[in-house]
Amino acid sequence: MGIRCSIMHIIEQQLNRKDINITTDLIDETNADSLDMVEIIVDVENEFDLLIPDEKVKLLRTPGDIIFYVQENI
């Protein structure tokens, strides 16, 4: 499974939604709370053996943001 598919799967599972695309604002459009976002980031970090600094986490609002960050940092 590629990076994009893996990340989309993590997000869809965490939020229990299938209507998410790479430009969906996870906080504004899906009402994800801070715990949802932390769990998504932790799952992404574990999946890709990556550590995302807290200052970067605040900037990751869409699946596309997360995908781009992972692609640039693995």
| Share of helical residues | 55-70%
Mean pLDDT: 96
Structural class: mainly alpha
Shape: globular
Q: Regions with pLDDT < 50 over 5+ consecutive residues?
A: none
How much of the sequence is in beta strands?
Answer: under 5%
Radius of gyration: 11 Å
Report the oligomer.
single chain
- Counting DSSP H or I runs of 4 or more residues, the number of helices is 4
- Biggest sheet details: none
What is the total tally of β strands?
0
Distance N to C terminus: 15 Å
Describe this structure in words.
Helices cover 58% and strands 0% of the residues. With 74 residues, it is an all-alpha fold. The radius of gyration is 11 Å and the shape is globular. The model has no long low-confidence stretch (mean pLDDT 96).
Q: What key phrases describe this protein's structure?
A:
74 residues; mainly alpha; 4 helices; 0% strand; globular
What secondary-structure arrangement, pairings included, does this model have?
Layout: H1 3-15, H2 34-48, H3 54-57, H4 63-73
Helix pairs in contact: 1-2, 1-4
Short description:
This protein is an all-alpha fold and 74 residues long. It has 4 helices and no strands.
